[in-house]
Write a structure and sequence with these properties.
Layout (H helix, E strand, L loop, with lengths): L1 H7 L3 H23 L2 H17 L11 H17 L5 H12 L5 H7 L4 H12 L3 H12 L4 H8 L3 H24 L2
């Protein structure tokens, strides 16, 4: 929070600190929204450029920097992709869930908006085996390719793919149960 205030006052080191601290989480989140590496990177760069340019006029009292940045990035990506986030799209997402169409990325994002939902995501992730959790972490939070994960874990690439597939299947089932119990 202190870095944010310093950044709004023009402190470049505070700005760089915010960038370095949040870049990986922003990339993971942005990639889960559009699954295009270049678009995600471009949107993050443009977002930080806009923040620096508008530092004099943006809210200096931001309490949750990560949430603020995620919201800014989500809007930027949706604008870039030409999407309009609305109540209708949320209802469509829930409708698709009942029809088993909802991609796992949207499930993860849908459960990250509130503390209660974050706890449900933690609960769903706790249902994974240690190996499945490690694969999900490497693939979606560290953004490694299947080949990179295989090299890093000394597993065959096919094994990595199977573990991630099983983990996603488990998450889908458990999260569907959570959504339906709401």
């Amino acid at each position: 929070m202190e870095n944010w205030l310093l950044m709004t006052e023009g402190d470049r080191n505070a700005f760089l600190s915010i960038y370095e601290c949040h870049y990986n989480a922003l990339f993971s989140y942005g990639f889960s929204l559009c699954t295009n590496t270049e678009t995600t990177k471009d949107c993050i760069q443009e977002m930080f450029l806009e923040i620096w340019v508008k530092r004099d006029t943006i809210n200096a009292d931001v309490e949750n920097i990560r949430s603020y940045l995620f919201t800014w990035l989500r809007r930027k990506i949706y604008k870039e992709l030409g999407h309009v986030v609305s109540e209708k799209s949320t209802n469509q997402m829930l409708h698709n869930l009942n029809e088993n169409i909802l991609p796992y990325e949207e499930l993860l994002i849908a459960f990250q908006n509130s503390e209660e939902k974050k706890e449900k995501l933690r609960s769903a992730l706790s249902k994974l085996t240690k190996k499945q959790f490690e694969m999900i972490k490497l693939k979606f939070f560290e953004n490694l390719s299947y080949a990179e994960i295989a090299t890093k874990t000394s597993l065959k690439q096919r094994t990595v793919y199977n573990l991630i597939y099983e983990a996603i299947h488990t998450l889908r089932l458990y999260m569907r149960m959570l959504v339906l119990s709401l």
